[in-house]
Amino acid sequence: MPAAPSSPARWFVRGDIDGFFGLAVDNLVQLLVIDALCRFVLGFPQELLLGQVLPGAALSILVGNLFYSWQAMRLARQTGRADVCALPYGINTPSVFAYVFLVMLPVKLSTGDATLAWHAGLVAALGSGLIELSGAAVAGWLRRNVPRAALLSTLAGIALTFIALGFLFRTFAQPLIGLSTLVVVCLVYFGRLRFKGGLPGGLVAVLIGVALAWAQGVAPVGEVPAGPALHLPMPVVGDLVAALTGPWALTYLSVIVPMGLFNLIGSLQNLESAAAAGDDYPTTPSLVANGAGTLVGALFGSPFPTTIYIGHPGWKALGARIGYSWLDGIVMAALCLSGTLGFIAWAVPVEAGMAIVLWIGIVITAQAFQATPREHAPAVVVGLLPGVAAWGAMMIKAGVRAGAEVSGAAPPFNEGLGAALTRGDVFASGAFALEQGFILTAMVLAATVVAMIEGRFRVAAAWLFAGAALSAVGLMHGWAWGVADTTLRVGPGAAAPAAVAYAVGGLLCLVLPLVARREEGAVH
């Protein structure tokens, strides 16, 4: 029976200090990464980044953390417990990289217009938020019918390439900073070292990275910011309407829908993790609040979805309760709205905190193997491959653009480039086909292999027929040569050869079991 409202739970306890520093360092590194990606990769002007993107992100972080703090206090009062820990929450790291490199950057490269790229990101965030908001009703069905290997390996493909490998390159570009901070992060999170006084390991890594960056001249970054200035969140309804009615509204559904589903199911799994640690939060309001945070961010200019973080039991074991959540929301919002984040980005280069992001990529990739049945490991590997191919395609195109820039020529994105690469034993046309809709491709292929491993050949056929349907309209494998990039091509017959191939594969899954016998035993 629930206890009376006179629960001893408090809004802030000593353990919240440790929890706050841990969550705040994580959030701060993500905001610094967003700042760097928006400025140096997407070319967002300062007024767009400081005036709309960061204030929108600040509001989404604040709204969600305040809700989950209130939710934790409510649960504490209902149960009469003082050890309730709020759900950790913030910007979704994989979505940041997916939406930057798979949605906004292609638009920027195709049009040269940062505003149109931002519009595409707003549509992506809006779609993700709507999926998260409405997904409570279907989350259970998805978890029952989509193999975990298909979900986790697809996410791991993004983590391994766009997060881990990208920052691994950066680590060895500045090895003193990168390797030193990576060693600290690995000692803390893999070696389970704890510093005296409860000093968070992530904070120690960042401080060491900052000191080394300044000693090497890597910091400060750019010019000194003009000064603190208040940037209040302002609705961007007009920009959203323009984005939804523009040419890019439906182009990147093959990225938006799977990432929204990942966020939804990942949040559901994190709710289960919290319940296992003793804090059983109601599913529907928790998921609705998560989606609402993403929607609020999009309505105020942020193209980056939010999510319930993994690791609730870890924060709880650290002593964090309720205060770490609301304090994190307030501090992150203050940094973004006051312009202070600009000073931090000037003084703290991404190199100082990139080991934490690299660690996130490693953990997500490892989880794809650890959290799936051992016999499904081949399916996990298959699910990783489209992401690796997509990243490789991006590297090929970046190299072509860099070569053109050095030579002063226009980037040769045409059939001639494809033929030249093929002569060099680089079948770029296959990489470009895998790049478009690779998230869906990874899900389809991994789920197909899981069904084959389990001997459910009709299910395998169904997944391949789904691949045929998605390819037939271009959501998978549909691509075309662009001005300075390859672009997603959607419409009937956009990837007809791939559609036929998937359909033939599905038929083989139905016919061959009729003339063969399945052997029982381990997967070879």
List keywords for this structure.
single chain, mainly alpha, two-stranded antiparallel sheet, 4 strands, disordered N terminus
* Main sheet summary: 2 strands, antiparallel
Number of helices: 21
End-to-end separation: 53 Å
Number of discrete domains: 2
Using the CA coordinates, give the radius of gyration: 23 Å
Helix share bin: 55-70%
Summarize model confidence as the mean pLDDT: 89
Could you give the order of the helices and strands?
A: HHEHHHHHHHHHEHHHHHHHHHEEH
Structural class comes to: mainly alpha
Order of neighbouring strands in the sheet with most strands: 1-2
Report on the structure:
There is one protein chain. With 524 residues, this protein is mainly alpha-helical. It has two domains: 15-372, no CATH class; 376-512, no CATH class. The protein is 69% helix and 2% strand. The protein has 21 helices and four strands. It has helices at residues 15-41, 46-79, 93-111, 114-134, 139-145, 148-173, 175-189, 201-216, 237-245, 253-276, 283-299, 312-318, 323-337, 340-347, 350-370, 377-407, 415-423, 428-435, 438-453, 457-472, 496-511, and strands at residues 89-91, 306-308, 479-481, 486-488. The strands form two sheets. A two-stranded antiparallel ribbon has the order 1-2. A hairpin with a 4-residue loop joins strand 3 (479-481) and strand 4. Helix 2 (46-79) runs antiparallel to helix 11, helix 3 (93-111) packs across helix 6 and helix 4 (114-134) crosses helix 9. The protein is globular.
